[in-house]
């Protein structure tokens, strides 16, 4: 990830030794002990920003680099969670969608993933891919669909992440492909056709 636009340093006299950092939007906040000198502060700020960026890079999806990488990751996930039965014709990154995180057209096997997810943690992108791949097996959002999706162990966590991301960004996106996360997905019926990750 590129150097953050803003670094905010928060000193605390109660903090004795530990230095830590976290990202809030485009700002990296570095927490340091109040006794630190300015030169130590600069050194630790640089180090903590580097560590945070390395950590974020490790968590990103291996498919974020290209459509080919995204398709390779999809095939790996299909083998791991869907018995290799979901074989898309194409999987590609597309410009941000207005109401969805991704979409799938089961009739021609195409899957499209919103560019908004390129920097999301890899496990979130993996969930979206599993969700869309499952539409190649079960076009609707009925109980068999969710039975397949829940083979991915981080399904609930990823759904919560996407809901929070949408709320934080004011996007108004729900679920993965327009599926409403506030109701029981095991009872949802949806007509076949184009399915999309919201």
Proportion of β residues? 15-25%
In percent, how helical is the residue content? 25-40%
Radius of gyration (CA) equals 20 Å
Under CATH, the homologous superfamily of the largest domain reads Metalloproteases ("zincins"), catalytic domain
Spatially, the strands of the biggest sheet line up as 4-6-5-7
Task: Output the number of helix runs.
Answer: 5
Biggest β-sheet description = 4 strands, mixed
Query: Structural class, from helix and strand content?
Result: alpha/beta
Span of the ends, CA to CA:
25 Å
Number of domains: 2
According to CATH, the fold-level topology of the largest domain is Zincin-like
What's the structural blueprint in terms of helices and strands?
Layout: E1 6-12, E2 20-24, E3 27-33, H1 38-59, H2 67-81, E4 90-94, E5 102-105, E6 110-114, H3 122-135, H4 143-149, H5 155-169, E7 195-197
Parallel strand pairs: 1-3, 4-6
Antiparallel strand pairs: 2-3, 5-6, 5-7
Helix pairs in contact: 2-3, 3-5
Q: Would you mind describing this structure in some detail?
A:
- This protein has 5 helices and 7 strands, in the order βββααβββαααβ.
- By secondary structure, it is of the alpha/beta class.
- It folds into 2 domains: 6-59, no CATH class; 62-197, Metalloproteases ("zincins"), catalytic domain (Zincin-like), CATH 3.30.2010.10.
- The strands form 2 sheets. Strands 4-6-5-7 form a 4-stranded mixed sheet.
Summary of the model, kept short:
The chain has helices at 38-59, 67-81, 122-135, 143-149, 155-169, and strands at residues 6-12, 20-24, 27-33, 90-94, 102-105, 110-114, 195-197.
């Amino acid at each position: 990830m590129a150097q953050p636009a803003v670094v905010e340093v928060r000193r605390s006299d109660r903090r004795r030794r530990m230095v830590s950092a976290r990202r809030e939007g485009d700002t990296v906040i570095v927490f340091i002990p109040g006794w630190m000198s300015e030169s130590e502060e600069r050194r630790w700020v640089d180090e903590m920003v580097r560590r945070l960026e390395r950590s974020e890079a490790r968590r990103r999806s291996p498919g974020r680099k290209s459509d080919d990488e995204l398709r390779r990751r999809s095939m790996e996930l299909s083998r791991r969670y869907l018995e290799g039965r979901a074989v898309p014709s194409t999987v590609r990154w597309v410009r941000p969608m207005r109401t969805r995180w991704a979409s799938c057209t089961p009739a021609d096997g195409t899957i499209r993933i919103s560019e908004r997810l390129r920097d999301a943690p890899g496990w979130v992108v993996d969930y979206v891919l599993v969700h869309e791949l499952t539409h190649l097996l079960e076009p609707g959002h009925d109980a068999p669909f969710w039975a397949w999706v829940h083979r991915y162990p981080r399904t609930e966590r990823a759904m919560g992440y996407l809901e929070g991301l949408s709320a934080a960004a004011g996007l108004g996106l729900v679920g993965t492909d327009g599926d409403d996360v506030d109701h029981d997905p095991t009872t949802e019926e949806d007509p076949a056709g184009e399915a999309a990750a919201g």
